[in-house]
Amino acid sequence: GSHMAAAKQDVKVFSEDGTSKVVEILADMTARDLCQLLVYKSHSVDDNSWTLVEHHPHLGLERCLEDHELVVQVESTMASESKFLFRKNYAKYEFFKNPMNFFPEQMVTWSQQSNGSQTQLLQNFLNSSSSPEIQGFLHVKELGKKSWKKLYVCLRRSGLYCSTKGTSAAPRHLQLLADLEDSNIFSLIAGRKQYNAPTDHGLCIKPNKVRNETKELRLLCAEDEQTRTSWMTAFRLLKYGMLLYQNYRIPQQRKA
Hints:
Layout lengths: L1 H4 L2 E8 L4 E7 L4 H11 L8 E7 L4 E4 L6 H5 L7 E6 L5 H4 L10 E2 L8 H9 L6 E9 L6 E9 L2 E5 L10 E5 L4 E6 L2 H5 L5 E7 L10 E5 L2 H16 L1 H14 L1
Parallel strand pairs: 1-5
Antiparallel strand pairs: 1-2, 3-4, 3-5, 4-11, 6-7, 7-8, 7-13, 8-9, 9-10, 11-12, 12-13
């Protein structure tokens, strides 16, 4: 009922220096709202790079919340070991500033002809009726095992797939690895140590319902940092589309 909407909740947020603040928030408070409140409380300068980070030390994962996400909702998916961090992320909307730097040509195919320009790349991602397909090799950890396999992987709006036949992206050769719907993409913090990952550039698709179970995590690993960033950006764009662009535009419109 309506009295629930006004329910207040205490949320603890840690700063870079290890100190923490307990903030009382409302159910409809977004990550951006909370960042602005924390900027105000800590007398920091708001340069729109402040971010709320969801940090799971026991799983070795973290991710930056998107500005529009409801803090209370995200908190309900977190384990007792997990925590929120408050820190800067200057690269949050880098994609909108330099889209062409993000995806090597062989990584993206479009369902319809496009001229490959900056604006075209943006529009294809933001327009939910066009379907960009992101593909390339990634190391994939087998569920419930220690071993990793290098596979040809395709990311589409419908989910993340791997090819069962070399680099074929024919539907009959695609096997679903993970759903985008009720999950989020995270960086692996210490993937080599914790998961025997082949490189330091790990990422993970974590279903929201999973709090402690590492065997349900879909762990992936890229060869380098740029490739990891490309995959993570593609995931965010396919999951949130236009919302992400609006998040990026809001502070600029306020300035104007």
